[in-house]
Amino acid sequence: xxxxxxxxxxxxxxxxxxxxxxxxxxxxxxxxxxxxxxxxxxxxxxxxxxxxxxxxxxxxxxxxxxxxxxxxxxxxxxxxxxxxxxxxxxxxxxxxxxxxxxxxxxxxxxxxxxxxxxxxxxxxxxxxxxxxxxxxxxxxxxxxxxxxxxxxxxxxxxxxxxxxxxxxxxxxxxxxxxxxxxxxxxxxxxxxxxxxxxxxxxxxxxxxxxxxxxxxxxxxxxxxxxxxxxxxxxxxxxxxxxxxxxxxxxxxxxxxxxxxxxxxxxxxx
Length: 269
Ligand code: PEP
Prior knowledge:
269 residues; alpha/beta; 8-stranded parallel β-barrel; 8 strands; 43% helix; binds phosphoenolpyruvate
C-alpha cells in the first residue's frame, strides 16, 4: 500500500505528506567540522529530491553550513530562537537574525531546551509564533519523559502549546514527536508505539484544527533513529520522517537515512 496515503477514516481525501528529515547537531562540531561534514555528506546524497533535508548546526556554524549547501536541496536550520526581534536579551538570537543568516528552519521546544534552559509550553508557543513571523518553519518538539501517561503528557503539551496557534500558523509547522526516554538512549520506541503516539497527536490536532489540517501536518519521530532501525519505523504510515541527533553527526549515517526516506517517498508516488 502507498505508505504516504493516509487511510480515509474521516471522510476526507487521503493526503500525500512529503518526507522530511532534520539533523540536530546539538552542541557538536565547529566551523572546520562543518566543512568536512558537508564535503563528505553532499556527494553521498547528491541533491535529494524526494525528501526535504534540514541540518541544524550550532549558531556559530550556520554561516558555513549555508555556504557549504548553496545550490543544493539541503536546508539549514537553527536549534532555538528567542521570541523578541531584538533588544536587551544578552546571549539570545532572534528569528529575524536566524532568517537573515540564511536559515529557513528552526527547532523549537527540544526536550533539552525544556529540561536545561527553562522552555515551557508557553514559551514554546511564543517561540513558534516568532519563528513563523520571521519566515522560518518551526519543528515543534513534544514528547513524554517516561514510558507512561503518554497520552496525558502529549495532550497537555499540545493544549498548552501548539493549540494556541491560529489555523494558518498551525498549517505552517512541523511537529517532532520525541519520547525523551529514547533520545540518545540507543533504543527507539517500537514502530507501533511511535505510530500510536503520532496518531494521538493527530487526534489532538483534529479536535483543535479540523480533519484536513490534522491530515496535512507532518509529524517526525525522534529518538535514537539510525540507519538500521529507520526502515521499520518508516513502515508506519503515521511517521512522516525523522528528527535525528547522534546519527546526524556522521555524514555516512545521515546520508543513509536521507537515501532511505527519499527512496520511500519515490515508492509512495
Ligand atoms: C534529538 O536530540 O532530537 C534526538 C532525536 O537525538 P538522538 O537521535 O541522538 O536520540
